[in-house]
Amino acid sequence: MNLSGKVAVVTGAGQGIGEGYVKGLAKLGVKVVVADINAEQGERVASEIKKAGGEAMFIKVDVSSEASATALAKQVHDKYGHIDYLVNNAALFGNLDFNPLMTVELSYLNKVISVNMLGAVVMTRAVAPYMPSGGAIVNQSSTAAWMHYDYYSITKLAVNGITCVLARELGGKGIRVNAIAPGPTDTAALRAKVPQEYLDGMVAQMPIKRLGTPEDLLKALVFLLSDDASWVTGLIMNVDGGQLMRA
Fold first, then answer.
1. Residue 152 is among the residues annotated as catalytic for this protein
2. Which listed residue (21, 85, 130, 152) is catalytic?
């Protein structure tokens, strides 16, 4: 699973799982683009990668904006000449207002959809033209997709469908599209959103009784990006300690 020298764009890379992704990929010799709407956090992550000896650049992006995504793709192409990998990780979660679907303001619901669901489409449309055959895209889903709790769940279920459709559309160009569905992963966003007693209850029911870590997800990401997964596309890979089992 040698990724050295490849170019990867990772959205939502200024914190949490996305930060774990770019730092892990950089250690493997990947030239990483830290893409985030939060400039302060994104610049911090890129700086820390460079200080550790990796190659990184920060680009501010709004994944719901076609103009912003297109500008990012062009900037990366101008610097490197191509883009090997895209990781569509950006999503509203830690600061998300969870309201009932029957009462949430439609303007807010549309905002969530534009980032959590359509962001993967917007970024893929912008980046794919610069991807060579053998390129790979990984979308960030969630086990929430099958739990039917709220509109966050809906957007992640939609990401699964988008992943499969894009896998069909881009397969002829030699580009693979897969998704990772994390279970409860120990990040600041999760801790801020989910009470400890609820987390304890979830973990107690899981076969592997612990929260996941960004490192757990990184291992799956590296496989799906690598040529070792050259015949894998349209896969939604659960990385969740057995939280959800689908026969």
1. yes
2. 152
